[in-house]
Amino acid sequence: MFDRASAYIIAEVSANHNGSIERAEAIIHAAAETGADAVKLQTYTADTMTIPCDNEYFRIKGTLWEGKTLHDLYQEASTPWEWQPRLKALANDLGMDCFSTPFDATAVDFLEKMNVPCHKVASFEVVDIPLLKKIASTGKPVIMSTGMASLAEIDEAVTTLRENGTTELALLKCTSAYPAPPEEANLRTIPHLAQAFNCVAGLSDHTLGSAVAVGAVAAGARIIEKHFTLARADGGPDSAFSMEPHEFRQMVQDIRTVEKALGTVCYDLTPKQKESKVFRRSLFVVKDMEAGEVFTEENVRSIRPGYGLPPRFLPVALGRRSATPIKRGTPLALSLLS
User: Fold this and answer.
1) Is residue 226 a contact partner of residue 251, using CB atoms and an 8 Å limit?
2) Are 25 and 90 in contact (CB under 8 A)?
3) Engineering a disulfide at 248: which of 34, 149, 166, 201 sits with its beta carbon 3.0 to 4.6 angstroms away?
């Protein structure tokens, strides 16, 4: 699934449907128009995530969702399970993959009935070893975000997945802050993940704008995931760090441009460079000369264009005599030296 020439670009629907399946469908239509390769859902209910409890342990502090309880947030943000087969069918009809992040074993079973092409593991679930075993047992490709995880925790998660049935794995560098500061992206981790775990690596990006995502592709990312909404002004739990369609479209275009620009290690002249080569400097006679006249720095110079001898021949020419009369503006050639 990840063996492709171009980066795999995922539009994360998350909670941006704002409780409306019509809006969810509009988001999927908009994602298709931007050039996204896939849309991603999240499969959970408030009760599969946590319990309704209002004590200090369950009340959110220090984030966009300050003051809410976990149960209230997940109740608001969840995507109804009965919508998801319909949303997947729509995405497939529009030429995109559609898959989801399961947050418990029942969600994995549900998504398997939907025949999703892969499973996504959220950063917060990297340490949920029983869930990883359940996901791995499907044999499907796995994309796992690594926000907050230490190298040892990533290693344990990867080992768990591979020992329990995962054969195709991608790891995403992720900064689990909403929004995430660019200076905390540490994109150089991406090629290290790929090398350390012998897998595809990419970026799950919560920064604002597209610069970090485009830079990630230049750093070696093969997968890019960004939250996607119709309009941030419409609000919702994830709207503040989501991209609007025109922004996502420009990001896709910029990524594709960067991919073309990366190319290969190459020192050969491209066709365009060959056309430009004529504008290099070369040796020209810059004053009319008689036959037998001595070449000096007054009558031969290194100038543009490049039709004469290369500039390194200047010491060879100086002090020699002209073999024939030479007009000003004549490219210097060895045949003109006596």
Assistant:
1) yes
2) yes
3) 34
